[in-house]
Amino acid sequence: MKPGDGSRNPGKPKPSGNPSGNPGTEAARVRNPDTLSTFDAFFGKPDCLFFNTLGSQALPGIIPAGIEDMRVPRGNILAPGNAFHKIWRCHDRQYLLQNHSEKHAYLKSLHDDYQKKCSRDDFVIYSYNMMSNHVHESSEIIGNLKAFSDHMRRSHGIFGLMYNRRHDRIGKVAHSRPKTLRVQDDEQLKTLMFYIDCNPVRAGIIKNPTDIRWKDLSSCRFYCFGEKNSYSDMLTVPKWYKKLGKTARQRQRKYRSMLDKYLVKDGMKRDPTMSRGHFIGGELWVSEMRKKLSAALKKKSKKPSGSDPPDSD
Prior knowledge:
The chain is an alpha+beta fold.
């Protein structure tokens, strides 16, 4: 196993085969790759509404079995004012982003779409970190969840299509739809950003989150030193960071100190709560959010057949 990204399938990217299971559809795509939509290039054929990838156990009296890993309409998780952890993995956990040029290609797609077609009045991006088979981002919905979903469709779709063309391949790039885990409050957002910063250290790729080799592939140096790169202008500084000091230098020094302490205490440990389920926060809050989600899904399932379809993500 290659150190770094938890991949079960290291090595060169391999052909993805037929993700749809429909020979006729796949044959048509082979004859004319341009017929593959940007959306399908990234995600493949859309999943069913509730897609259980890991088969988690039921939480008695709270939610049905497997719901922690089911695909749930994003509107049931996020609303204006909610920060969240966005994470997506490459198909079959392959190292499709192993080459730094692919990491930059994804970041450019994300950055260009956000700068040209999005507004900070709709949603903001706080931080990011690129790995070889998955990507972490922290963001917040400000006023428009749909704008964020549209941004993902465009930026991810274009990246997926371009990736397939560069590598003369077909099929999806991402394992499934990106997960967006709602974050309880600023304290949890702070911990999440530290967790994201430490990801390549935890993977054994670099020894320190501020390693110069990751200067463009992570937002860490932006917060630690105020250092800008090609993508930092898409970032918005969170409120909790602004409270760290009166000057930029004070805030950077405080952030470095807090990050160092986190790295020593918790940074080298993988924390499943940061990527599993739908919520990141204290146990009581997470339990309450699960109950509300379960109730919302049960209510939606009881709607008559002629009702509106579930919210898309």
